[in-house]
Design a protein that fits this description.
By secondary structure, this protein is mainly beta. It has one domain: Type VI secretion system, lipoprotein SciN (Immunoglobulin-like). It has no helices and eight strands. It has a four-stranded mixed β-sheet with strand order 4-1-7-8, with no helix packed on it. A four-stranded antiparallel β-sheet has the order 3-2-5-6, with no helix packed on it. The protein is globular. The chain starts with 8 loop residues before the first strand and ends with a strand.
Length: 102
């Protein structure tokens, strides 16, 4: 899926490790458990993958699991405007989630 031209980035996954990582990303809407995004990604060190218009104002559960590495889940509410998003950073022993508003 990845980034689509013309939309606003909702979720950005960044590899902060010193090696290539493969991970599975799953985003589900909390209100009805609808799957909004499922993707398997491979990122070089310091590489990012951006996903646009995933949550569209909904409250969602974001789960990222690194192959042979950490996994974490975060509940996040995408704002009504296009000014908010979520950074997901993959580190050697953890995954951190950082919501932002531009």
């Amino acid at each position: 899926m990845g980034a689509n031209a013309g939309g606003t980035t909702d979720i950005t996954v960044t590899n902060e490790t010193s090696q290539i990582v493969s991970a599975s990303l799953l985003v589900t809407r909390l209100s009805d458990d609808a799957e909004l995004l499922e993707d398997t990604i491979s990122l070089d060190e310091d590489e990012s993958e951006a996903y646009e218009e995933v949550a569209s104002g909904a409250r969602v559960k974001v789960r990222l699991a690194v192959d042979n590495g950490p996994e974490n889940t975060y509940e996040w509410s995408d704002g009504e405007t296009d000014a908010s998003g979520l950074y997901v950073d993959i580190e050697a022993d953890s995954i951190t989630f950082s919501p932002f508003v531009q």
